[in-house]
Amino acid sequence: MTLADFIAEVGGGLAGVVIVVQGWANWIQYKRNGELQDKMLAMAEAMIRESRDLVTDTNKTTSANTEIMGRAVRLLEDRR
């Protein structure tokens, strides 16, 4: 089926052209929307990974600082 046949099938004339063009524009928007949603999902997943890594690093730093403070307290108690 050619484009002209399709336009004639949906009513022909200017109305048929408008219907076909609008359908084509809707399809392009639908496709682009899907691409953008995929990009947004990838960005969200990357942010989650970065956040998880940041929390892990923060926990490691806190643990190391707690250990250092514990050692300092033990050293000060031993000097009494």
Could you please describe the fold and organization of this structure?
The chain has 80 residues and is mainly α. Helix content is 92%, strand content 0%. It is built from two helices and no strands. It has helices at 3-9, 13-79. Helix 1 packs across helix 2. It is rod-shaped, with a radius of gyration of 32 Å. The chain crosses the membrane at residues 6-27. Keywords: Membrane, Transmembrane, Transmembrane helix.
End-to-end separation:
96 Å
Radius of gyration: 32 Å
Strand content: under 5%
Helix/strand/pairing category: mainly alpha
Helix share, percent:
over 70%
The largest pleated sheet is described as: none
- Number of separate helices: 2
CA-based shape: rod-shaped
Strand count: 0
Secondary-structure element series: HH
Mean pLDDT: 90
Question: Runs with pLDDT <50, length 5+?
Answer: none
